[in-house]
Amino acid sequence: MKDVAARAGVGLKTVSRVVNEEPGVTPDTVARVQSAIDALGFRRNDSARLLRTRRTASVGLVLEDLADPFYGALSRAVEDVARAHGALLFTGSSAENPRREQELVLAFCARRVDGLVVVPAGDDHRYLTPEIDAGVATVFVDRPAGRIDADVVLTDNAGGTRTGVAHLIAHGHRRIGFIGDQPGIHTAGERLRGYREAMADAGLPVRPDWYAMGPTTPERVRAALATMLSGPEPVTALFAGNNRVTVTAVRVLSGRPQPVALVGFDDFELADLLDPPVTVVAQDPAGLGRNAAQLLFRRLDGATSEEPSRVELPARLIARGSGEIPPAY
Amino acid sequence: MKDVAARAGVGLKTVSRVVNEEPGVTPDTVARVQSAIDALGFRRNDSARLLRTRRTASVGLVLEDLADPFYGALSRAVEDVARAHGALLFTGSSAENPRREQELVLAFCARRVDGLVVVPAGDDHRYLTPEIDAGVATVFVDRPAGRIDADVVLTDNAGGTRTGVAHLIAHGHRRIGFIGDQPGIHTAGERLRGYREAMADAGLPVRPDWYAMGPTTPERVRAALATMLSGPEPVTALFAGNNRVTVTAVRVLSGRPQPVALVGFDDFELADLLDPPVTVVAQDPAGLGRNAAQLLFRRLDGATSEEPSRVELPARLIARGSGEIPPAY
Question: A49 near A57, Cβ under 8 Å?
Fold first, then answer.
């Protein structure tokens, strides 16, 4: 950090602000500090850090699936913050399998990573207590840890879903379906709660065949949607619980003669070019990754209180067309 | 491997076949071997491997950008093969910066990875020779190494582009534009070559304002397309050199009164639901990652000749509508 400050001709405080992406630094200064960091490179940071702190300058990131664009954006943001701190990144996909999550986490710990950023698949993280006690900084992201107190960075899933469902209600819908991910997944449960709350707030009933939770495979989503659209009280609108569900719902609904309104949780590329353009409740995957990694490095710098932090990012409704379709009957 | 074979009740040869995804094993046996691998877990494999070979059971993957869905799919495939071999994965994004590529590669080597899978940003990899000589298995993917002989897994970029441009010619186009990535990038150069060859094969000229190479930012693609569509001999069709270009081209062309035919290199999600559905030349990012990682582990097992291998995967035309639009004038 001192070398960077000297090379960029700024104070240590400024370097720290740039690295932590804090406000109050002019773009010109940011560029100067970045280029000093680039010029001095990883390896030098690395060796210095290792000598000074006996750290390994590496971080482990466990997420659900590297091939999912949501986690791609989250990973890249974690990587960028790690890089600014001279740390390398291990990544691994749990595929929603709690045992695989645990294997990856413990394998990363065996390599003596300084810290972990974890999108948990499981709901019991007591296995991590010895590692955290031994000094491995750990921040959970997207979903909270289970049965331990730990830092977490989340989206306001229930609030975002309430907003999206209330939007459909405001456009005249009374029979609204919800298709979500597996009920054991925290985000899926929170979004279902938001759906129920929005319906209750409007004094609307929720029939048992109007919501379906389970794997987000195309087959399962197709079957759930077919049920909702064919019962005695078919839905006139759907809230899709994540981008995998939305993509399949778009396919199914585009083939139907009668329009069905659709709001999806998570934005996705080209949503605005579909017919109709897809209304979404957008979260910020890069923001989740960035906040989690910044919290992790603040922990490693000892710059935070002992109490676990909980950061909650808002979700934002983007009205584009599909969510503003009135009820067909 | 012995433990896995015993637990699954199969021979060592069968375990090796499953791990290397070779044919000749029934799905039932694959499932049995996989579940034995899962049950025995990473850590055990890890320690055994370390004891036996003094390896670190880790692999470094350097790519352009973790947040790009193409590299997300490639990464996940590398991770899956690494996992089957009990190895963990370091990942890093070069952001098309040769110095950052080198920093990442050398940082991974400093952590003593057993092997590297590299999507090169630079065109001179002589800096890697000492590492390769020291035993770090290295496979390049998507683009070849520069100034050293090394293993590489590629898509047939020129051939795929020739097919796509010939398809436009077969639908009556004579003035066809090409927008590609920066000319220093191997894949970009190969695709430009394929475009030129297809035009030459059909006896068609290529005007200098019909092709444009450079960063694939939306602004640059918009400007290049505007030039091609407004000159004295405007193009009636466009070949988009990668999925970033295609996405921007779809946006620009959807706002025009006169249809322009479009074929894009790289498939992308929802391409079939756009209006018109987008015709693409699809490569197989997971296949690139899988082949590269399998080659890497064959090298680590000493199961290959000394000669560097070159694997070329085909690209496949998927006609969906946008590439079959006739010339507007």
Answer: yes
